TrEMBL record:
Coiled coil, from the record: none
Keyword Hydrolase listed: no
Species of the source: Linum tenue
Alphabetic keyword roster: Lipid metabolism, Oxidoreductase
Protein name: Fatty acid desaturase domain-containing protein
Subcellular location: Membrane
Cellular component per GO, a single term: membrane
């Protein structure tokens, strides 16, 4: 199913190793998990359904913030997106 998901199930690994070929992300995932455990860092792994639900909830929260620009929330996700550098 790696091809179907496009490697998005290994997003953390991709951002740590952006030049690593997608077909190698599964191999490096246990190393990243062990490193996170060693340094007491959270490593979140969601199922396909959970990840989609989380994404839709986040998109909804951003849409609600963007819709109410008359009463903007300081430093909301829309502000962050507009003022992103790099």
């Amino acid at each position: 199913m790696d091809w179907f998901h496009g490697g998005l199930q290994f997003q953390l690994e991709h951002h740590l190793f952006p030049r690593l070929p997608r077909c190698q992300l599964r191999k490096v995932s246990p190393v990243v998990q062990d490193l996170c455990k060693k340094h007491n860092l959270p490593y979140r792994s969601y199922s396909f359904l959970e990840a989609n639900v989380w994404t839709i909830k986040t998109l909804r929260a951003v849409a609600v913030q963007a819709r109410d620009l008359a009463n903007p929330v300081p430093k909301n996700m829309v502000w962050e997106a507009v003022h992103t550098h790099g």
